Amino acid sequence: MVSETSKALNESLKKYFGFDQFKGEQEPIIQNVLEGKNTFVIMPTGGGKSLCYQLPALILDGTAIIVSPLIALMKNQVDAIRNVSDSDDIAHFLNSSLTKTEIKKVKDDILSGKTKMLYVAPESLTKQENIDFLTNVPISFFAIDEAHCISEWGHDFRPEYRRLREIFEKISNVPIIALTATATPKVQHDIQKNLNMLDATVFKMSFNRDNLFYEVRPKRDVEKGIIKFIKERPGKSGIIYCLSRKKVEEIAELLQVNGINALPYHAGLESSARASHQDQFLMEEADVIVATIAFGMGIDKPDVRFVIHHDIPKSLESYYQETGRAGRDGGEGHCLTFYSYKDIEKLEKFLHGKPISEQEVGRQLLHEIVSYAETSVCRRKYILHYFGEVYDDTKCNDMCDNCKNPREKFEGKDDVLLFLKAVEFVKQTQKAQYICNLLIGEETSEIKSYKHNEAEIFGKGKGQDFNHWNAVSRQCLVRGLLTKEIESYGTLKITPEGREFMKKPTSFILLKEHDYSADVDETAVITQKGGSAADEGLFKLLVDLRKKISKEKNIPPFVIFQEPSLQDMAIQYPVTIEELTNIQGVGHGKASRYGKPFIELISNYVEENEIERPQDFIVKSVVNKSGLKVHIIQNVDRKMPLDVIASSQGKELSDVIAEIEAIVSSGTKINIDYYINDVLDEDDQEDIYEYFLEAESDSLEIAHEEFDGDYDEEQLRLMRIKFMSEMAN
Q1: What's the pLDDT score for residue 356?
Q2: What global pTM score does this model have?
């Protein structure tokens, strides 16, 4: 039978929010708050956290103070509450964005008892004038949203959050409800201790989001991978996270150029632009937001279908929080992360200059995210283990890449036993890295300082490499044979299960881990179909066609298209003039002048041979805005000597000549006669020009031999530029 209290609560839920029933643990949480008890809620994103303080605030007398970290988040929450009420006075926010007149209106509404919820930034709460004002107001309770900001072990630590308890005590002695979507056991204890609420009733929901698919890919051809991924999901909403504002701008522009409706979002944009981009995303006028982590806090868009991490986040908590923005409606949510150890090295550099303890915390958090990226065990199991939850990975239902495509397994009983013995040998005082080095026989300065290089166990595992032993340590942790002592930044300890295993070793199946050591840098050329072999049959036909046209027009074959361009055509099969401009060394000028017979030939070849083209996923490059190209063209127009252009840019002359070669080969006319006339007399120029007119190839090596070294490489390059510019463009 439903109790009277429960019935009344359900009526309030229906009255204020229009819902017929509570979600998960919402009802007992709200009941706890109404009974005046301290409450600690750990609930994943999308679980309905905000209702846990909004409903009691509407029911209780007085005003609830809700501490929230971001202005955008407050505005979002206040707008949402006003939408379910018949009065805008029901909820307000107090932060630095308000004018004096607006602040007065907020305070008047609170004093008149109209305002049930006041959202404040922690910085606003520390101001004495606000403390004095709130001391004279009936407060129902304090709520702290995003409570992980209190803990230095949390992913978004904010020092001002650590002062909240002393400020609350100055204002009023009322209950506290702290809420977070991510908290490891360590962070949970830190929050409770800091808020002096170890007596709080703790409500901890499962962190499992069974509708999310987790995938990690090596960071190769990353931009191309992102474009392909999005184009396979037309019209679906997604967020792409990047570490830097510059990268956000670059990726947003690249997506737009490739026909994807994307917008950038970062703290460097004007606030009006940020608000506009956020609204366009919410209103589905834009499909994709490319953002730094400044985006997404409190953004209530339930149908985000994918979250892509272009760069790996700083911690597993950040990762969980950001991926948690996918599939909040319970529908599809694909979480794709691109991983390269280079990103970790960049993040480690950011730690330099910080206090030692902060560096240690940062490194420990980075170590966890590396372990997650490189692990071969079920990703869901790994995440939940991090948050102190035991998970049966047979229930993953292939909802992560590791379960969908399982890695090779092997018997690891002896390796596990050796690793545990090494942990015991160092008296459980060292981290995984130390143990791995000890086993492979690496004489690090640390190992030598302990004289462990003289111990019998030193080098006992040198039949395997460091990565192998690192994998053993991770899998022992996830399977519960070892734990990590967070207080001492990752020292390994043997658990009772580990002791049992050492007494009676049983079969222990290990998984071969991912090897990301062969990663190609993300800056590699992305417009090519990397590593693909050209279609030899097509290439031969293209060479023949080029020869035929060169005879008709009485010009050398390389003037029409150079060999690398033909190779690229035989890889990418362009069948329109537009597609032809994506080919290496082919600009719009060349494509329109010479392209028609080539695309006709390729089109027929593709049809006759039933070839499946990779063309859908050819990435159009954003026009090079480095400034060097524009700078060169402008200064050549002004007839500035090329060596002066080079020195003004801190470049070598050969770099500038190479840039001009690229400009000309893509079809742009450029006149450097003024410079050539200073380097070569008229007869020499005529001599070289006539050579290129007759030549089969534009090779400088062959030209150099032909002239018996009379002209140096630079002179030949300059004349080749003049020739190509006049003949080809």
Answers
A1: 81
A2: 0.63
